[in-house]
Design a protein that fits this description.
Structural class: alpha+beta
Number of strands: 7
Strand order of the largest sheet: 1-2-3-4-5-7-6
Shape: globular
Low-confidence stretches: 1-5
Order of helices and strands: HEHHEEEHEHEE
Radius of gyration: 15 Å
Bound molecules: coenzyme A
Number of helices: 5
Length: about 150
């Protein structure tokens, strides 16, 4: 039984000590990664910054802002070697439960128009695409639109 449990990913709060590893992963998986300052500001602001780990190794992380019954999912990332194993879905489910437990009734996020994996993950979880923010992100050639997605948590 304990061997089975040891195989499950675990979740814990992110700390400043995690940022070297988080930044190495961030730089590997995003063409336009967050800066270290984005993460340290999120920690300082008291955002919900979570680590997913397996066998002591960080395999994913996320940042969520929650206020006044609404949540904004700012970052959800699975390390390169761990993608497409259901871990993004598992971490999203963990965050949705956390948000519900915090009294959140609506969660939203922005995702790049070209991010097929992210849009598929969120659509599978029940998010709807509700708007487009023009030229929201930097891109290799100019700017790229963001799709705004929303999920009501009842
Ligand atoms: C997006 C991301 C978090 C998905 O995590 P993951 O662990 O690889 O995804 P999962 O294995 O849990 O897949 C869940 C669903 O997401 C979608 N999905 C995930 N990767 C996909 C891909 N490469 N292409 C298309 N759909 C994909 C599918 O709908 C998938 O369901 P399925 O396996 O039944 O087809 C991960 O790819 C990642 O960290 N990417 C880089 C960072 C990023 O883009 N984050 C999101 C920014 S908003």
């Amino acid at each position: 039984m304990s061997a089975l449990l040891d195989d499950l990913p675990r979740y814990r709060r992110m700390t400043a000590d995690d940022l070297d590893f988080v930044m190495a992963t961030e730089n590997e998986i995003y063409p336009h990664p967050w800066t270290r300052g984005n993460f340290s500001d999120s920690l300082a602001a008291g955002y919900y910054c979570w680590i997913m780990e397996h066998g002591g190794e960080i395999i994913g992380y996320s940042v969520v802002m929650m206020a006044a019954g609404e949540a904004h999912l700012l970052n959800l990332s699975i390390a390169a070697g761990w993608q497409r194993r259901g871990l993004g879905r598992a971490m999203l489910e963990f965050l949705l439960k956390l948000a519900r437990d915090c009294g959140v009734h609506k969660i939203y996020l922005e995702v790049r128009l070209s991010n097929v994996a992210g849009r598929g993950l969120y659509a599978d979880a029940g998010f709807s695409e509700i708007a487009t923010r023009r030229d929201y992100y930097p891109a290799a050639q100019g700017r790229e639109d963001a799709v705004v997605m929303e999920l009501m948590l009842t």
